[in-house]
Structure formats: C-alpha cells, structure tokens
## 1
Amino acid sequence: MITVLASLGQPLPDDPSPIETPTVDWGAVAPLLVLVSGALVLLLVPALVARLRSTTVYTVVTCLVAAGAIVAVVPLWREVQDADRGPFSTLAGAVGVDGFSLFMTVVIALAVVLAALFAHDYLRRERLEGVEPYVLLLLSAAGGIVMAHANDLIVLFLGLEVLSIAVYVLAAMHRRRVTSQEAGIKYFVLGAFSSAFFLYGIAMVYGGTGTTNLVEILELFSTTVITEDGLVLAGLALMLVGLGFKVAAVPFHFWTPDVYQGAPSAMVTWMASGVKVAGFAGLIRVLVLAFDAYAVDWQPIVYLLAVLTLVVGAVLAVVQTNVKRMMAYSSINHAGFVLVGVQVATDQGVEAALFYLATYTFLIAGTFGVITLVGRTGDGHHHLDDYRGLGRSRPGLALVLTIFLFAQAGVPLTSGFFAKFYVIVAAVDGGSTSLAAIAMLSSVISAYLYLRITVSLYMGDADAAEPVPSTAVPAAAGIALAACAIVTLVVGVWPGSVTEPARDAVPVLTASGDGPPG
Amino acid sequence: MIPALFASEAGGHAAPAFDILTALVVLPAVGALAVVLVPRARSELLRGVAVLFTGGTVALAVYLLAAFEPGDAGYQFEVKRSWVSDLGISWHVGIDGISLFLVVLTALLFPVAILGATPHHDAKRYYAWLLLLEAGCLGVFVALDLFMFFVMFEVVLVPMYFLIGGWGYGDRVYAALKFFLFTMFGSALMLVGIVSLAFLHRDAVEDQNRAAATEIVAEAEGDPTPAESERIDALRAGEPLSFDLVAIAEARTVVDDSSSANPLDWAAARWIFLAFALAFAVKVPLFPVHTWLPDAHTEAPTAGSVILAGVLLKLGTYGLLRFGLYLFPDAANFFAPALVTLGVVGIIYGAIVATMQRDLKRLVAYSSVAHLGFIVLGTFAITTEGLQGGLLQNVNHGLSTGALFLLVGMISDRRHTREIAALRGLQRVAPVFAAVFTVVMLSSIGLPGLNGFVGEFLILVGSFLTRRWWAVVAATGVILAALYLLWAYQRVFHGEVDDDNRAFPEMTWREGAVLAPLLALIVFLGIYPKPVLERMEPAVDRLIAHVDENSDFVSPSVERPDATTEEAEPPPGADADEHAEAGK
C-alpha cells in the first residue's frame, strides 16, 4: 500500500513497461512490522483460543510487542549512527530511517507500554474487558511511527490517519458514558476536518512543486527559486493547520479539553503522550526539514502559534476546576514549549523538542495514570475536590503525583526542568530570546495550577470532603507510576542519558534509493 | 581559554582531599532520606535524627570556620566536577569570606529552628522538608556555577512551600501560594538571563580568540612555527559553553568598560542584570515586590519563619552581591542609585508599616523589610565598610530576627494569640522571658554593644561616602526601629497583668538552651566583631577592586595621612572595633 502510493510521487516512465516496484528493505521497517503484526496476532489469537482471553494477557502481549519494536530499533540505530552508513531511506524514498525517526519510535513505543499498563486495571474496573483497546493502541502507535519515518507527504498523511482513526475509537470506547461518546464524536468530526486541511495542503504543495516527496521538495527549494510561490505557501499554511490540530496548538486546540475530559482516562494517557509525539514528529519533518528554505516564512507564524499556545494554555488551565481539563490545558502549554524548540529551526531546537517530548511523555502519562486511579469506578471523580486529603489517605499516590506536577512546573532536579532549560538554551542560541522569556513567564502562570492541585492533595481539609478510599494501587499501574517517577527524578539529575541520544537523533532527509548496502 | 581564567586558577587552591562543601550540601539531603526511612512505629526518633544530621552540618561548618584562611581573598575548598558536560555545566563549589558566614549562619539556624519548635502533626514530613531546605540553602551559598546556583535557588521553594502550607497558621495556603509564585516569577526571567549570559560570554570569548589568532598570523607573516599554528588552531576552534561564575566574571566579557577588548553591548548586560536583580529583589524582598513576605512570615510555622527570615531572605542579598555586583560590575553601578533608593524606601516603609501592626509576628515580618533595606543600601554603596556592614547585617538579622520569631512563636504557643492587644504585663509573670526578649529586641534595634549596631553603623559609614543623602534618610530608620519595637515591647510586657496573661509560663530551660547560642552570638558580635570582619575583608576588597576596575565606579578615597588611592580604605575590622568599644 505504502509503496504504491509512494510511487505516485515518481514521474511516470515514458514507455508503458510494467510498473517498476521498489525493493522493500524489510529490516528498515522492522519496528513498524513488529507493531502491526503484533496487533494482528493480538486480535486473532485470543479469538481462537478462549483461554487467552484476559486483560492481563492482552496487557503483557502489548507491552512485549512494544518492547519488541524497541529491540528492533537497536540494530537500525547502530546502523544510522555508524559513520560509514548513516541515515538512509527506503521504499522508493518514501520512508526515511534516521536518528530522529528511530528516537521517536522508541518514545512512542514507551508511551504504548505506559498506556497499556494503566489501561489494564481501568478496563477491568470499568467492565470494558476486550482486546480491541489494545489492538487499537498498537495500530495507532504504528501510525505514529509511520509519521515519524515519513519522507513523503502522502506517507505522512497515511500515518496521521492510521493514528487518528484508532484514537477516535479509543476516545469513544467507554460505551456507557455519554461524555466518552461525545468526546469521540467531537474528536472525530474536528479531526476529520483538520485531516482534510492537511490533505488539501498536500495537494497545493504538489501543485506548487510537482512532488510530494520531502527530499525532492528540499532539493527543489535548494536549487530553484520559485517566483510565484503562493500555492506552496498556502499549502504550507494548510498543513500547519492540520498538524497544529494534532499537537493541540492554539487556536486549533478547542477539542482538547472536551476530549481529554470525556475520553476514558487511561486512553488520555496515550492521547496526551504518544499522539502528541507523533504530531510533533510530522511537524518537524515537514517544517524544519523539507521547508527549511521557507523558514523565514513559517518561523513568524510558528512564533505566534507558540506564544498563543503558551499563554492561552497556561491562563485557561488556571481557571479550571476539573483536573482532567486542567491537565488538558496544561498539555497545551507544554505543546507551546515544544513549539518554541521547533520555531528555532536549528539542530539544537530539534534536540530540545525531542528531549521535551521524551521526558514529557513520562510526566503526562504518569499524571493521567494517577488521574485514572483517583477517578475510581465510573471514571467520574475528577473534580479538584476529589483530590482533597489524598496526601493522607494515599500518600504514595499523592507523592508521585506531586513529583509529576512539580516536574511539569519546571522545578529543578526533575526532568521537566531540564526539558524547559534545553528549550530556553535553544531559543536563546537561535536568537528567540523574547520567546524564551514569554515561555518562562507562562510557566509561572501554569505553576499556579500545579500548586492548586498539590494544595488539594496536602493542605485541604480532609474532613470536609468525602475521603478518598485507600484501596491498594493495582500492580500494573503501580509499576508504570514508579517507572515514570524514577525516570522523572533520574533524568532530572543526570539528563545525559536522554540528551545524548537526542543529540544523535538529528533528522536528516536522505534521497531515495539510498538504501543500506546489503 | 582566556588568560584571566588561568590566572584565577593558578591563584586558587588545590582541590581539598575531602570535598567538604559537597558533603555540607549532601549531608542534610541524606538526613531527609534518613528521616523518611524511620519506621512509623518509632516516630519519637524523628526529631533525634533531624537534630543529628543538622548537628553534623554544624560540625562541618565549624570545621570550615577553623580551616578557613583569613587572609585569602580567593575561593577556598574549591571543587569542580562536570555535571552536564554538553552544556558546560559543572558542580562547582567554593566559599570565600563573603559566603563563609552565611554558610555558618545557615548551619546554625537549622538545628535551632528544629529544637525551638515542634510540629503539631506529620513530624516525619516536616523534618524531611526542613532538611531538604537546608541542603538547598547551603547549595546556594557554595555554588560557583550559574546553573547550579539557579537549581539550588529554585529548589528551596518546594520545601518552604510545603512547610508554610502544611504546618502554618490560618491563611497558610494563600501565603504558601503567594510565596511560591512571587519567587518563581522573579527567577523565571533569571533563567533566560543566565542562558543569554552564557552564550554572550562564549561569543565574546570566541571573538577574542579569533582576534588573537589573527594577530599571531599577522606576526608570523605567513610562516608560523608549528607551535604557533597549533596555537592558532586552538584559538580558532569553537569555545564550549560555560556557566562557570568565576570564569564569566573574571573574563570581563560582561563588562561594559571600553578598555576591555570585547565588551558585551551595553543593552544586553543591563537587561540581563535586570533579570537577575528582579529575581533577587523578590527574594530579599525590595519595596514594591515585598508583599509576599508579611503573609509568608506570619502564616509560616515558627521554624519556617526562623528559616525564612534567617536564611531564605539572605539568598536574595547574597545573590545581589555575588551574581549582581560581581558578575555585572558596570550594570550594577549603573542601577545602584535605583536599588539604593528602593532599599531606603524599604527601610522607612517597613518601619512605618511595622509600627501599625496589631499582630506581633507581622510586626517582626515588616521589620525584616526594613532591615533588608539596610543590607541593600550597604551592598550598593560599594565601599568596603558598606559591603562588610551589609554582610555582617545579614548574619545579625538572621540571629536577631530568628530569635525574635522563636520568641513570638513561644508566646503564640502559650497564649494561642499573637495580637498585641491581647498581651499585657508579661514582664511580671515571666521576667526571664522578658529579659531575653529585651536583649534580642535591642539587638534588632541596633543598640551599641549588640551585634545590630555594628552592622548598621558600618552600613551607614560606608554609604555615607558614596550615597550621602540616602545614608541620612536611612539613619532615621534606626530611630523608627526603636519606635516600633519599643512600643510593641511596652504594650506586651509592661502594664498590669490581666487574667488572660496571668498564667503565662516562664521560659523553660529547654527553650533557654535553644536561644542561648543566638544570644551569645548577639553579644559576642556586638563586642568583638573583628574575627568575622577580618575574614570578610579580603574578599570584599577584592570585589570592590573588581568593580572599580570594570566599571565607571571609582572607590571613594578617604583622606588619610599616608594613603594612596588604592589603599585608601581604613582597616575596617579595627575601625568597627573602636566604635563598638566606644558604644559599650
């Protein structure tokens, strides 16, 4: 499928000889294959073997599949980092394998693991046992990975759709909650709309440049000056709208609070981490890589988007009383920080964005993991008052939530601080000092929100509110929370373990047919 | 690399075999962990563990005091380790005469605060937060890396926030939020400033290196020797980013002096200075951004107030000195009139508002605004006396206001009110308590013979040289201090005892023992401040020379028979001594 569509971008051969199909380098797309085949196996096998129909099996298999994808990345990473080989592209130049795409693949796979662990208890509790959420999760991740690898706008669109459609279903998965249905419909309608924008943008870029291949677009811009580039600019703007929707940049953010609030909490874990990572992967590939020559045109736009996203996200987060909505707006604020890294359009900016996304994945997944647990059966306890006295009734849970919240506020010795710091460094180095200052000020505004939650946790009158029942934290969720907290603290002191791969993960566009030898 | 850096390294000390400063920072943090690990069933051990670790910190601090070489102006016990290598961030610690006494003060006040007040619930978390707070505070005072400094400066917010919010009085949540957000707002821009500074410094050094390389090329006339070409290559290679305070400050790249080879442009240095100054002004706090202080001090638990006033405010004044004056001599000199004015406004405003307070604790809180105004005045007078007085006043304020907060906390625990109107005639029923309160209060007023006088006197002498009228206005603040404190003392301790106050318990031995070291130091520093001043002096002189050299500022010369311009300053230790003795 991918190959056929990708070959559409190639000029048609003059003689009507049989269509030349590109060779497929299976090894290069191994992580993707692992995820997709894992999803199919997961769908089929329990259907045939009744003994395997349990959420525990599904969770374990999902985690193993995601881990398999990470393992499959390792040889590719070595190959890409090898000075003799370097990044390459395959499938007729439609799929690029570089440090960037592999880094993103790992982050997305980790997000899958976390989401699966949180979903385990949630699905049982809500009596939604079924294999579908796990299959959709894996397929959605596969879509995200396609986006991260895309060297062609059509491939990017394919990835986007695979990712999105699975997530629409996940949002609407809680059959007995009207808000979940509402979230699904809202997400679907608005998402479809934005996909249409994106597709229209691709069409315009194709009209303006004659290709959808990112490498060819890059080459075209570096060799030719297009005098009448209205079509290209319009296409770029429309693509920005489509991708801006996925990463929830203001003013394309309106769906976020409603969807995050209505969707099943365990699935929001994935939406806020993996989906966002994939969206940014697409954004960086298109803007920073292919449309590098047009940086002068899109940088001011992204600057404005970043400012709006930072400020609106922070300000609106503060006035919420529903914790899920709060975190939805705060995730908008964080998207603003990543946009700052994108706006700089330097290797350092991309590195900062990667670091941010990697660390934020653990923060937000952990936060929504706690929200999932506090939400209790019915997934309805999300008011700020429901967190009253949590510090007393469930000290462990309150402690990890506090860690995640302070990390998101950017308090030093947490990963969130270094994430912000790297973005600031990149912005100052790239000459966007004013943007760095705005970003830091917005983080002070949003700090109020995190403090409000910790106030409820520790300083609220526990007697006034209905006490949170102190049931034990389920094992799977416990493991995931502990992992998130440990990553947050360890990276907060020794960021090198993430920055070094992030630095090696500079995205490169490599021309087609440049497959690895052998 | 630049010659200045080599020079400073050559002048420094070899790394000590035992990294005492890192141990000083790590020990309380380990203590916090130990407190957390105390089993729930043995909660009576918590206090002991906390005292043990803070006591260990005191022992280290005393060792520092003993091993510190008084005549050395440079950094001692210096250790530098790479932390985040790709950004040139290092764990760089060291102390000089400026930070030494703040470290000692911090180490001393924490066990006093822990012994002087007990939490009414959740002792485990309370002690853990206090110990983490101590680690952060000590980290600020020993940090010589901008990044490390920022990390420590920010990280102290979290424990303090929880201490105020968890164990404070009535309006504690509001006070805790206000405290956190105000301070974070201040330091948000400082982070951008730090990063900008590091990049500007790197660019300036690279420019210098390139210029030097061009010079060598020109001298070699197209035929460089191998050694020369090696040197050219080394100079042309990019310069790594560095957040090292000493390297940046001594490299003089941030200096606006036209004689230096590559000055940063004026505007940039000043903007960055303002970003730093804002962060410190909030922390100090200076007049318009002080509003968090009365709330935080009043609502905090007693130990929290002691640490807030005694240590946390000093992070601001210390920052102004080390990361304002030292790092940006010219910008600091440029903005000094504004800062001094704000300081003096704070002195008068704080005093007047303190007079009007009905709550005894709030009164003490506002008196802090006034005292800190003095310190800022002394710092930006940029004279040896002014700086020394400011530094000494940092210590004095920590001792006397710390003790005052302890005493007010004791009153509050006994009477469950801090309303001045509700307290009467305590002198009759608790004479020892009243006597202790008197001594501490007089120290805070600045009575000759007690420590407050030495500090305030030196500040006024120092600022009189460079900021005459500001010093004149500030001097009235001393009178106002006498007004509000004596009046409050009168209302609380004098008069007839009414029924509510008749049962006011006398000071216990235990409370006395906690206050004893503070009282001893109050008297000792008032009579014999020389050991402190002579340890401060070399570092202060060096700082002033640094400012003198790198800005338009010219040190005022005091007429002395045999004085050259450079040695115009009288030996202030001896000087202060004389005055203190005269006051006695």
## 2
Amino acid sequence: MPTTHVPPPAAVRLLVDGQSVSVAAGTVVAAAVAQAGRARFRRSIHGQVRGPLCGMGICMECRVTINGRAHCRSCQTLCEEGMEVQTDE
Amino acid sequence: MSEERLHFEVVVVGAGPAGLAAACVAAESGCRTALIDDTPWLGGQIWRGQQAHPAIPQAAQWVERFQRGKAALLSECAIIGTAGPRVLLAEHPGGPRQIEWERLILATGARELFLPFPGWTLPGNFGPGGLQSLAKHGWPVAGKRVVLAGSGPLLLAVGAGLRKMGAAIVSINEQAPWPRMISFGAGLLRWPDKVAQGARLKWALRGIPFRCGAWPVSADGTEQVSAVTLTDGSRQWTEACDLLACGFGLAPNVELPLALGCQLNDGFVRADEWQDSSVPGVYCAGELTGIGGADAALIEGQIAGFAAGGRQNEARALISKRASWRQFSAALAKAFSLRPELAALAKPETIVCRCEDVVFDRMKQFSCWRDAKLQTRCGMGACQGRVCGAAARVLFGWGMESVRPPVLPARVESLCKG
C-alpha cells in the first residue's frame, strides 16, 4: 500500500449559540457543543436539562437546531463550515 | 428535494461488521448490492472511526474490501419504514428515497441497555460505547475524571480507549460478581483471540480500580453529573467525576425487523440455518440474532451474504465457526446476566421514559408495555421506546413485540412523498 502524507486535520468553524467555535474536521456537532462549554443540549417536556446519552443516534437526547432545522441529532451530524447550531430550545 | 427510487438485488441495512461482510460477499457473488447506513461513515458503532483512523486491522481489511467491491453505499440514509411490499422507505439529506429489494439482509446491530437510577437523566451520563463514539468524534475527554459502571466487556474496552485519549479513569465497576467473571475468564481459553484481547486490556488499564459485584446507586449534580454513588450490596461510597459512563450490556435494534414482520425469540430475531428470518427473502445477521461481538457478526454476515448470493456451499463452510461463536455468545449472556438489585434502582419519582418524563411509580401500575404506553405515553416520545422499552423489559419483564411505522421520527415530507 503506498504511504501517503497525512495532512493535519483541517479546522471547521461554526457557531454554537452565537459563539464561534473552531473544531477539527470529522467532529460531530454534539462534540462541538461540548467544546463550546455547554452541557445543556435541550430541555425535557417538564423542563429538565438534558444532554447526549447514547452517542449513537438512538436516544434523541442530543437534539439541537442546526441551520434553522429543529430536532437534529447532533451526535450523528458532522460539523460543516459556517454551520449555525442552537441548543436549549 | 427530489424523490428517488432505487432498485437492488440485495439490500443490506447497517454498515457494521455484519453488514459490511454481507455486502462484500453479496456483491462479490455478482449481485447488484447496496449497503445502507444512517451514519456518514462505515463500520457501525463498534468500528466507528476506523474508516478515518484505522487501528483495528480486521476493520481496515473489511472496509477496504468493501471499497474495492462493487456494492453501492447509501450513507446518511435512515430507514423509516416500508413503501410497499419489498420496498424500504428511507430519509436522506437529499430527500426521501424508496429502495426496492429482492433479498434483504438486516444487520441493524445493538444499542446499549440503560437502566434508570436517580440522576441518570443528568447531562454527563452516557453509555460507555456512546461516550467512546463521541470522544472519537471530538467530545473532549482529556483530563476528565470518568467513572465506568454497568456490565459487559465493553466497560474495559471503553476504559482503555478513553485512557488512551487522556481521560483519568476513576474506577471500573462491573455488576457481575467475581466468581462468575473468573469462570468466564477460564472459559475464554476456547477463544484464544479473546484471551489475548483481555490481556491487552488488563495491561492498558493497569493501576485502575476494577471492581466486580459493584453497581451505581445514584448520580449527583445540578446541571450535570459531578459524582456517582456506588454500592457492593453491603456498603455505599461516592466518587467524584466529570463524566459517568454507565451501560448494562447491549440490546438488539429489532424495530426494523419487527416492522417487516420478522419473528422474535426471547427478544432477538429468529435466524435459521442461512441466517434467514421468518419472512421470505429477509436475512438477519450480527447482534440482532444474539449478542456475540464483531467476530460472530462477521461470520453471520458472510453466511447471509453467501446465502443471498445463492452460494450456499460457501455459506456451509462457515457454519462450524458460527457454532463456536454462538457458544461464546451464550457464555457472555451467562457471565454478564443482570443481578435483580438493578431492577430496583429507580425510586418512585425516578424518570424511566426520558422523552415523555414518565416516572417509575406511574409505569409500575400497569401490567404490560402496551397498557403503560396507552395510559402514560411512556415509549411514545422521540426515541419511540428505544431506551425505556428496553429498560422496561428488565424492570417489569415487559416485551416489545410489535412496532408502528415510522420506525424512526420522520419528516412529514418523507411520509407524503414516500
């Protein structure tokens, strides 16, 4: 197998609740939210704070709004340049 | 948004070890094959991240074999139900898709089993596998104090993985008692690879307290987990942590097989000689048929792929290997069976259904899953009972024997156009 030079991971910039965050390529939105220092992703129907539980797209606790689209599973979505993420809705 | 209709001879759902193996073999048999997964990557949960950063030789081999082959990959494609006989309906960022199949191989894998205890809904509490997956995709764990609890070999694998990423593992707490672990360890001699794997994990986790017969009682914190209280059945103690990784083994993702009418047997999909289910043309492979790990899944996936490709002779050659892995699967189930105390961790006011905030006291008044759902809305929220339904099986002995479409929350446009 030919050896290939592995470039350093490119940075992706996105907005989490209006705050600019720079993450490595391949980072999921849930991780970008955590890197932005937020533990609270959403509120339950009775107002409890919640964050990701299963990390694999099953539990739906990591739902956030991405580019205006509500209820996106942040653990299954890769960060993209210029993405706008809104938590706690 | 455009609506697409695709047709394949063999459609494989799930790109973990079983699905990858099935798709490779079916495509190599000359069948027009598609592999569908709802994530953007190959490898499923167990081999997550292997495509980008190969570390497990076996995973790299199968990913490469898949990429060399002719099977089509439909990634970020979530199956939400059916759109007629032998047609799957999928959601995709580009719009809904109808996927016609002649033979269908289901390899939807397993999820972690969560059991409710006070504080388990606090942010910072994850499934061990879930935390590992998130960490591989950028969740910050370096320097964080992590307590691992629950059950199963995954606890050790995740502990080693997180430690490598710079986490400070506080302790690992396995609910199964020492005598069972010791006899499981002795029995592993029949699977030398597993002994080697165990030895590597033990070395990677040197210096970290590993307890058997210990389990969590509650997680404490206000906005997120800051400590966990554990017990060994006679005394209780509290350990400070930043992250709690707690899962009680794995539960199969049977929603799609159920929606297609596949019969279950003790919670798993019934699979016969060629991995065929009770529905003609539908095969099942991997964790769906019993929790056995990646090696077992690879064998079952290949058998299903050969069978769907009409190569029964080649499938037959793998049957003795499958028998050996089924013994391993049975040994796992016996060793890590859950202690009855775990069904009593939830207090009357502890939330069991996280989507609808239904507490233990409300649910326990009912005699079956269906009644509890109708009266309390448990299992009717966004996860559709994937978390609390599996827990209710342990807490109350309720089975989930049917599902209603769509099997995943879907956009109205997908349902209308589909």
